[in-house]
Amino acid sequence: MKGKQLAGEKAVEYIEDGMIVGLGTGSTAYYAIKKIGELVKSGFKIKCVSTSTSTTELATTLGIELVSLNDVESIDITIDGADEIDKNNNAIKGGGGALLFEKLVATASKKVIWVVDSSKMVTKLGDFLLPIEVIPFGAKHVYNTLEINGYQPKFRYTNEMLYKTDSNNYIIDVNISNVSNYLQLQEWLDSITGIVEHGLFLGSADMIVVGSEDSCDTLFV
Ligand SMILES: O=C(CO)[C@H](O)[C@H](O)COP(=O)(O)O
């Protein structure tokens, strides 16, 4: 837990007064958001774009001003977590189910910082299942396509109910441990009707802050 806190808080040092900031989702982004709350209390004028209802709730309790992604030209800096990052700056995200808004916010950002503890840094992606967000209509057909192609899909459940994202879609988690060409996989997933988005984020961070028990490393990529 310490590594997540160190990484989350370190990334906040890159925020300047007056910036528009993208707020990620998850237990590492949590520490960054708490720290941003402190900046706001100290007088920083920051506007933030949230990536999930849970982040919106947290930011609101901390008195952070939130704006819609539609109301900003771009975002100066986004701080977000990740589930796995390989040595080429490719990541799996979406363990918390917020991958669609996270990708939209990252795409609109001038600078993206991923904050992780050292357990998230891997030589190869795939121990963590890749989340794929699908619209409910015909979701079983998308599932079948993924199954036929060997990705061992699993619909995500929570409390024995199908998990619903903030956009009321389902998540299918797939096994990509046998994949080596992520670009090809991305292209294929992007081509399947019914898939809204997937959690492959290929080379999309500018900086990665990796926290361990007592220190953190900042990688500029
Ligand atoms: O992509 C995400 C949510 O959709 C999170 O950033 C990812 O799951 C990492 O979460 P945590 O910091 O709790 O380990």
UniProtKB/TrEMBL annotation:
<keyword id="KW-0413">Isomerase</keyword>
<dbReference type="InterPro" id="IPR004788">
    <property type="entry name" value="Ribose5P_isomerase_type_A"/>
</dbReference>
<feature type="binding site">
    <location>
        <position position="120"/>
    </location>
    <ligand>
        <name>substrate</name>
    </ligand>
</feature>
<comment type="pathway">
    <text>Carbohydrate degradation; pentose phosphate pathway; D-ribose 5-phosphate from D-ribulose 5-phosphate (non-oxidative stage): step 1/1.</text>
</comment>
<comment type="function">
    <text>Catalyzes the reversible conversion of ribose-5-phosphate to ribulose 5-phosphate.</text>
</comment>
<comment type="similarity">
    <text>Belongs to the ribose 5-phosphate isomerase family.</text>
</comment>
<feature type="active site" description="Proton acceptor">
    <location>
        <position position="102"/>
    </location>
</feature>
<protein>
    <recommendedName>
        <fullName>Ribose-5-phosphate isomerase A</fullName>
        <ecNumber>5.3.1.6</ecNumber>
    </recommendedName>
</protein>
<comment type="subunit">
    <text>Homodimer.</text>
</comment>
<feature type="binding site">
    <location>
        <begin position="93"/>
        <end position="96"/>
    </location>
    <ligand>
        <name>substrate</name>
    </ligand>
</feature>
<dbReference type="Pfam" id="PF06026">
    <property type="entry name" value="Rib_5-P_isom_A"/>
</dbReference>
<dbReference type="InterPro" id="IPR037171">
    <property type="entry name" value="NagB/RpiA_transferase-like"/>
</dbReference>
<feature type="binding site">
    <location>
        <begin position="25"/>
        <end position="28"/>
    </location>
    <ligand>
        <name>substrate</name>
    </ligand>
</feature>
<feature type="binding site">
    <location>
        <begin position="80"/>
        <end position="83"/>
    </location>
    <ligand>
        <name>substrate</name>
    </ligand>
</feature>
<dbReference type="InterPro" id="IPR020672">
    <property type="entry name" value="Ribose5P_isomerase_typA_subgr"/>
</dbReference>
<dbReference type="GO" id="GO:0004751">
    <property type="term" value="F:ribose-5-phosphate isomerase activity"/>
</dbReference>
